[in-house]
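User: quick one - fold this with zinc ion bound?
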Amino acid sequence: MSELIVEILEDFLGDSKKHYKEKCQISFDCPVCSYDIKGLEKGDGKGNLEVNYNYHVYKCWACSETYGTHGTINKLIRKHGNRLHLKQYKLVIPENRKRLVPDIEHTIDGLPQEFTPLDIERENFDYKKAITYLSKRNIGIDLIKKYNIGYAVNGDYKGRIIFPSYDDAGEINYYLGRSYDKYIKLKYKNPEVSKMDIIFNEGRINWDSNIYLVEGVFDHIALPNSIPMLGKILNDVLFKKLVSQAEAKVIILLDSDAKKDALKLYKRLNSTSLRGKILIVEMPEGFDIADVHQKLGKKGVIKLLTTARKIKESLL
Ligand SMILES: [Zn+2]
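Assistant: Sure. Structure tokens for the protein plus zinc ion:
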């Protein structure tokens, strides 16, 4: 049993560092320390994340306090693995531990209760703050309506702009809560489901037209028929869907600080049946597409898109 858990963990955390079999304790490079904090593509080599597969818990010795990197293995998989890992874990977990894995098919139950659409003008402080924040980012009422952007005056999402994500049946499959208060530490607040299992605004994608792969939700709003990866990594659900459904070109537009990730992504997609249909747009230094939209508007975005190009295999 235990070897199987180790195998599942290694599949998304990479090779283990130390393994004390008698204690059921195993360590890995922490994905939060390595990727989220240091921006490394590989592990930081420190092996700070310890997992105990007897107690089914994990903790990072470096960042657990500040980043909440501790909890059950179930949480670890939800945060950094995918649905398949969770399924496999549920199969190998002992009967008396099953309660630690609540509902594997768990999906979110609509938007937060306090969600209020921003398309109707209201006389309150939060409404004005939210609208001001969005208009600074060149997001006006047309885009607010198009994407059903909202906010909340109380509850967990108070002080945040809420971006709903719709699946292909028009149901909510995810949402993002972006704080408009610059003093808030946690910029984004998201629901408990893993972003690795969903395609943000899948229901809005036209698979027959050119598709743009972008990083964040503001990039997504600036660019029609784009999909935000909600990070620099393409999740497996989206990867499979692109390979099987994309009929036209797939254009990669990652931030200027993610050139390596963009090339990696190019290579990965170009070695599938999408070969020859992948293009890349190189961002001006220090920019993402949302910045271009904010500063130069639609025209600036279009101008940038015309620079999309293929990359020679020898340069990858
Ligand atoms: Zn850590």
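One thing worth noting: The chain has a mean pLDDT of 90.
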